[in-house]
Amino acid sequence: MDIYLLCLLVGGGLLVLSLLGGHHGDLGLGGHGLDHGVDTDHPDTADLASWLSLRSLVSFAAFFGLAGVVGGAAGLSGPGRLVVALVTGLAVGGFTAFAFRLARSRGEVSAAAGRLAGRTGKVLVPPAPDRPGKVALTVAGQIEHLLARSDDALHAGDAVIVIGVEAGVLDVKAWNGREL
């Protein structure tokens, strides 16, 4: 079995599974576009991390393999087949990373946004009236760093509860562990 067929089978299989069963995880490398521990003070790190999301890597593998298999069937030689496979895989993987990053920046995709109301978390960067802050919530077993706004005066480390989500930004209130 050659590398192209292996990539097509593994990458294509994972791509089909993610389409059928939903896809909520990444490698912890920033693939959700929500920082997964990525240092957002250094944009180059965040940019690189978005290219290494599980979605992008699976897309690369599937289409690298597909192009290699099709190139081989079309009679391309080893180097020509490799070039076609690399260009195709990089183009599709790059487009996947770009599309999901763009959708998240516009608030069109978020990690379980509809199920965040009522969750509690901790303030990482306090929100201000003119800019959102950042909070940490545990979602599906992973710590998510999400943008948040609040009418309450919050400080780093304060406990908060999510009361809503609008355009990908959480609305949070100070929380003392009791009913609101």
TrEMBL record:
Stored InterPro entries: NA-bd_OB-fold
Keywords (A to Z) from UniProt: Membrane, Transmembrane, Transmembrane helix
Spans through the membrane: 49-70, 82-100
Gene3D superfamilies: Nucleic acid-binding proteins (2.40.50.140)
Name under which the protein is recorded: NfeD-like C-terminal domain-containing protein
